């Protein structure tokens, strides 16, 4: 017996919901790591942004996107969005000073 379009839609949406949840948890973990990087940079007087690293990451993610059949332009836009947020966090950490209880 064939599944109805409604059943197929519900199943697909369930998978999408699971993927969205995984993305959120992965982003949260990524930001926990970048917060630690921000503290390290602030502690040692390093700049919040690293343009050379950012360019390496853009090239790397564009390659990965191509391998995954994902639009490389989308991957780059997404990475740029995340990097802007990370830099904002690093600037705030540097401005506020490093907390010793971290």
From TrEMBL:
InterPro entries the UniProt entry points to: Chorismate_II_sf, Chorismate_mutase-related, CM_bact, CM_dom_sf, CM_II_prokaryot
Keywords: Isomerase
GO process terms (BP): chorismate metabolic process; salicylic acid biosynthetic process
Pfam families the record matches: CM_2 (PF01817)
Domain Chorismate mutase: 3-94
Taxonomic superkingdom: Bacteria
Record EC number: 5.4.99.5
Database matches in PROSITE patterns: CHORISMATE_MUT_2 (PS51168)
MF annotations from Gene Ontology: chorismate mutase activity
The name this protein goes by in its record: chorismate mutase
Organism: Oryzicola mucosus
Lineage of source species: Bacteria, Pseudomonadati, Pseudomonadota, Alphaproteobacteria, Hyphomicrobiales
């Amino acid at each position: 017996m064939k599944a109805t379009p409604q059943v197929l839609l519900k199943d697909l949406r369930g998978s999408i919901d699971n993927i969205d949840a995984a993305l959120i948890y992965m982003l949260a973990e990524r930001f926990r790591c970048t917060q630690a990087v921000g503290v390290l940079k602030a502690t040692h007087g390093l700049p919040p942004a690293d343009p050379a690293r950012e360019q390496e990451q853009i090239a790397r993610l564009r390659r990965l996107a191509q391998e995954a059949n994902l639009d490389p332009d989308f991957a780059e836009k997404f990475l740029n969005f995340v990097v802007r947020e990370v830099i904002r966090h690093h600037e705030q950490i540097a401005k506020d000073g490093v907390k010793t209880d971290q």
